[in-house]
Specification:
By secondary structure, the chain is of the alpha+beta class. The protein has two domains: 78 residues, Glutaredoxin, CATH 3.40.30; 138 residues, Glutathione S-transferase Yfyf (Class Pi), Chain A, domain 2. It is 57% helix and 8% strand. Strands 2-1-3-4 form a four-stranded mixed sheet, with helices on one face. Helix 5 runs antiparallel to helix 6. The longest helix is centred in the middle third of the chain and has 23 residues. The radius of gyration is 18 Å and the shape is globular. One of its GO terms (biological process) is glutathione metabolic process. Its main location: cytoplasm. GO terms for molecular function: glutathione transferase activity.
Length: 230
């Protein structure tokens, strides 16, 4: 049987989530790193595999699957991982996970990603300063997201969707960790509930969690001026 091929860049939040899941569950895969910063995802060879020109994606013996949520669900089903990751045996538990997975696209993912982009990616691409109005809009969005994580999703539970970790927790934590690269982690660390949850997720997933986030810590060290200029 051909081994699963995984195409990713660890600077991408969803890429890290799938990478950590694969490692944590000891699912064998062929490493296929893609350097987004070099534009490798726009090459003709890449587009032949994935016309979307995005990561992550998997190639499972010719079956190409994009989108991190779809990939994680597929891996849960194919490799029959422990039920807590995506508890399909319980209709209500799996509905809770799906609830977060659908909500996160325009909340955790959108807001944290755009804070990162407005502080680092867009200024580098355009040569212009930070658009403070847009940045403040998305920082406010992160704060509202963190409040929802605290009051609705966690709400006295150790993990977003219940008593054990799920794919929702990996995705959520990876999105918030992106804020560390631009010195904006205070947007979630100031909330004790969310900070404690992040700690539990990290502890549960280490050493894979820290290993996958080395690029984030490196970026943080390379761009200390981002914090100084705010």
């Amino acid at each position: 049987m051909a081994q699963l091929k995984y195409y990713y860049d660890l600077m991408s939040q969803p890429s890290r989530a799938v990478y950590i899941f694969l490692k944590a569950n000891k699912i064998p895969f062929q490493d296929k790193p893609v350097a987004l910063r070099k534009g490798e995802h726009f090459s003709e060879d890449f587009k032949k595999l994935n016309p979307m020109s995005k990561v992550p994606f998997v190639d499972d013996n010719g079956f190409i699957l994009t989108e991190s949520v779809a990939i994680l669900k597929y891996l849960c089903s194919k490799y029959k991982v422990k039920d807590h990751w995506y508890p399909q045996s319980d209709v209500k538990k799996v509905a809770r996970v799906d609830e977060y997975l659908n909500w996160q696209h325009t909340n955790t993912r959108l807001n944290a990603a755009l804070v990162f982009q407005h502080l680092l990616i867009l200024p580098k691409m355009t040569g212009k300063g930070v658009n403070e109005n847009q940045l403040n809009k998305f920082k406010k969005g992160v704060k509202e997201t963190v409040s929802s994580l605290d009051r609705y999703y966690l709400n006295g539970k150790p993990y977003l969707c219940g008593d054990d970790i799920s794919i929702a927790d990996i995705l959520g934590a990876c999105e918030l960790m992106q804020l560390r690269a631009v010195h904006e982690e205070h947007l979630y660390t100031e909330n004790p509930t969310v900070l404690a949850w992040m700690g539990r997720v990290r502890e549960k997933l280490n050493p894979e969690f820290d290993s996958a986030h080395k690029f984030i810590e490196r970026t943080r060290d390379v761009y200390p001026h981002i914090k100084a200029n705010l």
